[in-house]
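Consider what follows.

. . .
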Amino acid sequence: MLDDLKYIHQIDKTDALGIALNEPEQLHHVFDTKVSYRGVKNIVYTGMGGSALAAALSVSWPGFKLPFEITRNYVLPTYVNQDTLLIVASASGNTEETLSALHQGESRGAKVVIMTGGGKLGETARAKGYPLFILPSARQPRYGVFYNLKALTSAVEQLGLSIDEDVEKLNRAAEFLKRCAKSWEAVVPLKHNLAKQIALDCLGKSVVIYGGPLLAPAAYKWKISFNENAKQIAWMNSYPEFNHNEFIGWSSQPVDKPYAVIDLRSTLEHPRVQKRFGLSAQLLGGRRPEPIVVNAEGENLLEHLLYSVLLGDFVSIYAAIAAGTNPEPVDLVEKFKVMMVASD
């Protein structure tokens, strides 16, 4: 079915596959916003859902010279003060948790940077003169992660707060990703299309994704993509923590395990982490499904990370199509937001 282009177009009504194919172009976007704060001692990024994904990726690349924390709720950490760079992100600009966090940060004198497509956050930034990164429209926040990453990288590079201070690497990575995406297009048949193959292996199963410390953010993106694109339950965890608890959980109950296990591996992970993947699979042989191993490709950490993210987008979209589900809509989320407002 995944080689039937007519069927694909019938199910993928808003061309999520086309959006995924064009995601690398987001890394070429130029943000001309200037950020010139001084005296920053820590960084807090607040955002929900897809708006927080870029922050998770940024922990691996470009990394930070100062303490960095992501908050996904209404309340900021107690240490946030005038020495904090507070990055506030929401694609819509109206996410209630994020607006609450912004108000707290303002009351404590934090140094605010806003990343949004508009809404109340955009209005606040313009009214108060905060550095404002306007995020180009993406059909869903999860489809605009690379815009967010480019904006975040641009902001912290200006302040000299990132470990890998080379935003141009994103432009070079974009060209690499374009070549990869071509091999996952709908016109590439199943026997040559890794994304289609993995999607079919995951059909009708709960998906569990694992990564080492470097690719754990990509594993989290896979989890979100399976949830929202495929409307499929998924979890993630990371090594080496896996071997200290969840590892045992696979050894017994439940006896029937309708799961698909995916290992995101990188040759750049710590050698001991790489060894853990193999030994874990060996000891759990027959006790859990054989892992689907995804070996990250590319010449550096950034390319390994973004390769893994983009492949996960294609896999989850194909999983949706194989199940006869339109990948884009998240109707239940939208309904929930309406009910929250109505209940006030």
Notes: The longest strand covers residues 84-90.
